């Protein structure tokens, strides 16, 4: 029986869409141990973006409490399922925080739409050299001497005899 399973799993495709997870493990994750289909309870960010900020904060607190319980069970010698769930909960908390931060930044951006200046963290980052460079109006400014020189001695145009 073991040989049949080993041959079955080893003969499957090596390249999977999910990097880092073998085909056999993904098969067991999707179907469960006994073959019944189970829903993957992975959090989708587009669903989070539809929620209000208050709901997100409440759910975030629940996730943090769950993480705390999982860490306690880890110290007490929890099961492998609980230990592997710690990573999932941490990633979920990160997604919640990302969406909350996005919403807050968009709100501030919308409020400051008509103002002349933006806060530093909302400005376009670019590179340090570009941020330090002169603006277009600064680079086009000329001294009084340069203005007089251009007015009195315009660029000469020559006709070429062919």
What would you say this structure looks like, in words?
The protein is an all-alpha fold. Helices cover 59% and strands 0% of the residues. Helix 4 (53-75) runs antiparallel to helix 5 (80-111).
Main β sheet profile: none
- Poorly predicted ranges (pLDDT <50, ≥5 residues)? 1-11
Q: Which range best describes the helical content: under 10%, 10-25%, 25-40%, 40-55%, 55-70% or over 70%?
A: 55-70%
Separation, N- and C-terminal Cα atoms = 95 Å
Radius of gyration: 31 Å
- Gross morphology is elongated
Strand content: under 5%
Can you give the mean pLDDT?
82
The helix/strand series, from N terminus to C terminus, equals: HHHHHHHH
Classify the secondary structure makeup into a structural class: mainly alpha
* DSSP E strands, number: 0
Number of helices: 8
Question: What descriptors fit this protein?
Answer:
162 residues; mainly alpha; 8 helices; disordered N terminus
How is the secondary structure organized here?
Blueprint: H1 2-10, H2 23-31, H3 45-48, H4 53-75, H5 80-111, H6 128-132, H7 136-140, H8 144-152
Short description:
It contains eight helices and no strands.
